[in-house]
Amino acid sequence: QVQLVESGGGLVQAGGSLRLSCAVSGRSVRNYDMAWFRQAPGQERDFVAAIRRNGGNTYYADRVRGRFTISRDSDKNTVYLQMNMLKSEDTGVYYCAADSTLILSSLRNSVNWEYWGQGNQVTVSS
Fold it and tell me: Which of 17, 107, 115, 122 is the most exposed place for a label (fewest CB within 10 A)?
C-alpha cells in the first residue's frame, strides 16, 4: 500500500512561486509514475504534470509548461512540483497521484490513477 502526503501549499501573489512536496511511504517512489493534478471549485481534476517511473521522463499540461517543474528525490522518497510565475488561474486544490501500471496515453486522465494524496490548497491572488 502506498501513502501520499502533500505539503507546501498556501497563498501567494500572482507572479510568485511555491513548491509542493509529496512524501511517499510504503514503496519506493522509483517504482511509480507520479503526477500532480489540480481541481478548481466546481471543476474536474485536471492534469498538471507527471514523471515516469522508468527513465524519469516528464510531461506537462500546456498551460503550465515553462512555468512548473516536476521532479523526484529518490533518497527522500519525495516528489516535488516547483511552480513559478503563478497566475490566478493556477488556484485550486493540488493532488499528488501515484500508479505503477499506466501506459503513456493514460497519464493525463485522473480516473486512471490508483493512489491519491489528501490535497493541498494553492491560492494565487491577482
Answer: 17
Asked if the model's pLDDT at residue 116 lies above 90, the reply is yes
Q: CA 69, CA 82: separation in Å to the nearest integer?
A: 5
CA atoms lying within 13 Å on the CB side of residue 92: 20
- pLDDT, residue 97, reads 98
The Cα angle at residue 9 between residues 7 and 53, in degrees rounded to 5: 55
Residues in the chain: 126
Distance between CA 15 and CA 8 in Å, rounded?
17
CA distances from 19 to 24, 79, 89, 104 (A): 16, 10, 17, 25
Task: Please give the Cα distance from 30 to 23 (Å, whole number).
Answer: 13
Q: For residue 10, list its beta bridge partners.
A: 122
What DSSP line would sit under 56-125, residue for residue? Answer: T-EEE-TTTBTTEEEEEETTTTEEEEEE-S--GGG-EEEEEEEESS--GGGTT-GGG--EE---EEEEEE
Q: Is the pLDDT score of 1 beyond 90?
A: no
